[in-house]
């Protein structure tokens, strides 16, 4: 029995995903080229703010940590890391993109032929809400998840689809595309956040309160080794198997599978509460600020109308 640091035996590529790092770097470079040099080519283009730049960089660092660093490798060994990856990827990284991408670029992206149809779902909040949470729950059915994790192309496709659905789910609250009058007010946005939490709860509860481990890819040696092909080069994995060095996740941790599974469900629920708590605070204070602005504007207009009426009355005296 070894400790979790033994993942170094899988090699540099499996642990640090250099090709994914290059992808993240290229996306970041392209983002700054668009927002700092080519923004004039877009309708309503403007220079990017320091805040947007900082949020984008932080978000891309998070993307690499979640999907390219040893965290990704650990997510295939321990279910708790899998749920940590899910929580950060779908409930933090996805909504942060709305804060990082300027409004003119959001309008351009959601206006592209295929994406236009996809993000149109976001104009129907209830549908967007049900789609992501339904897909998330179905993905975590043991028969679905175990089979997907043993097929690299199907698994990656589903992960991308889930991320797109997460973007669509947060579209009604954070997008900068729709006119202000088409947005939900602050109260409905907060209720929407509560709705996401409620729909995520059954999947978390099923995982937390299960009486035995649910997923073969975290318990059965053969299924686990097949799933590890998602992130470990096949040559490296074959070499380790041939030497008899690994047979299952128990090589890396003393945690019982059922305890690891329960920890994963708890992590997802706790991180959801933390992220949603910040979202609720942000939405509430922005709603309060906008309401104060509206009140001030109504007062200003009333005073202006009263002044005009007084001037008219004085003219006819």
Automatic annotation (TrEMBL):
It is found in: Cell membrane. Keywords: Cell membrane, Membrane, Transmembrane, Transmembrane helix. It holds the Pfam family Caa3_CtaG. The keyword Membrane applies. The keyword DNA-binding does not apply. It is a multi-pass membrane protein. GO terms for cellular component: plasma membrane. The chain crosses the membrane at residues 12-34, 55-81, 87-105, 126-145, 157-174, 186-210, 266-285. InterPro entries: Caa3-assmbl_CtaG, Caa3_assmbl_CtaG-rel. This is Putative membrane protein. The lineage of its organism: Bacteria, Bacillati, Bacillota, Bacilli, Bacillales.
């Amino acid at each position: 029995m070894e400790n979790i640091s033994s993942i170094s035996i899988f090699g540099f590529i499996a642990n640090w995903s250099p090709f994914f790092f290059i992808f993240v770097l290229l996306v970041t470079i392209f983002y700054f080229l668009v927002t700092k040099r080519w923004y004039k080519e877009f309708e309503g283009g403007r220079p990017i703010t320091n805040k947007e730049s900082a949020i984008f960089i932080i978000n891309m660092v998070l993307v690499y940590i979640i999907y390219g660093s040893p965290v990704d490798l650990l997510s295939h060994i321990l279910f708790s890391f899998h749920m940590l990856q899910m929580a950060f990827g779908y409930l933090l990284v996805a909504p942060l993109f709305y804060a990082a991408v300027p409004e003119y670029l959001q309008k351009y992206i959601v206006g592209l032929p295929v994406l236009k149809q996809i993000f149109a779902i976001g104009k129907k909040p209830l549908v967007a809400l049900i789609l992501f949470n339904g897909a998330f729950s179905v993905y975590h059915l043991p028969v679905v998840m175990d089979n997907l994790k043993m097929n690299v192309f199907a698994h990656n496709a589903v992960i991308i689809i889930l991320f797109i659905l997460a973007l669509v789910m947060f579209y009604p609250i954070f997008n900068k595309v729709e006119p202000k009058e088409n947005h939900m007010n602050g109260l409905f946005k907060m209720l929407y956040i509560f709705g996401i939490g409620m729909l995520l709860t059954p999947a978390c509860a099923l995982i937390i309160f299960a009486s035995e481990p649910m997923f073969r890819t975290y318990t059965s040696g053969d299924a686990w080794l097949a799933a590890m092909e998602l992130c470990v080069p096949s040559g490296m994995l074959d070499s380790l198997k041939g030497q008899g060095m690994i047979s299952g996740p128990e090589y890396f941790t003393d945690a019982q599978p059922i305890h690891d599974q329960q920890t994963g469900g708890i992590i997802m629920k706790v991180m959801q509460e933390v992220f949603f708590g910040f979202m609720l605070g942000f939405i509430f204070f922005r709603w309060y600020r906008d309401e104060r602005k509206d009140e001030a504007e109504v007062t200003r207009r009333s005073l202006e109308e009263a002044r005009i009426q007084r001037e008219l009355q004085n003219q006819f005296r």
